[in-house]
Amino acid sequence: MTPARRTIARSLAFEGRTLHGGARGAVALAPAAAGTGWTLNGWPRATWTHNDAPLATRVVTPSGRVSTVEHLWAALALVDVDDVHVTVDGPEVPILDGSAWPYFQALEGSTCDSAPVTPRAPWRLDWPSVALDVGAAHLTARPRSDSTWPLLEVASSWPGVAGGRLVVDLSVAETRARLARARTFGRASTLPRLRAEGRALGADATCCVGLTDAGDALPETPLRFDAEPLWHKALDLVGDLAWLPGPRAVCVTARDAGHAANGRLARALLDRVGAT
User: pTM for the complete prediction?
Assistant: First the structure.
């Protein structure tokens, strides 16, 4: 039986400092009727474009740009929300604890069938595979036949995740919860440069895992679990692909990929199946 489309049962609100601007940001989520999809500041998904940046994902709507959407998008995808109104007060989504966990926790117990109850239209990749090279990054996607959830394989040679390889099966509920808890990270030595460029102005130990140049976590930001930075790379991938129509029955392999490469893959997949 095809599952029904999902929305949230009640409105939710979040507020906190933003990662790059360092200012206050706020997000409000509201239930939406079946077939609405995700709206951002009143604009449907079909009107959005994505403006990729090295350290965040930005959505451009006809009324303006909203940055650092990836953790919120990942949370909505991980709890399987089809229809929701998203309102962001300010140019950037608040970073909260640096993961998708605060959004995930609030959303997990707040989903329900969209009204009127409407079956989902299946979303499947019709092409055998899609492959991209974006700079040093390499990504592939192929159809997944045994589940409507993505299967991800993430690998990286960057400090903190070097030599790591992670397989994430999002059909497993415990895996989705673990993924949601993985926090953003960065090398402490790069923070002065980023701030001089006007980025990472809100980064601190409450929302980021600080790494040494060798890739070890700083004492003030211990890891929540092994390979947390690599898990966060997978979380960012989920968030960057989440604006595709769901369910997302794909197997994705990503090596040394960041937001810009992830966004290129999302657009390539949309070219194959079309947006809804």
Answer: 0.94
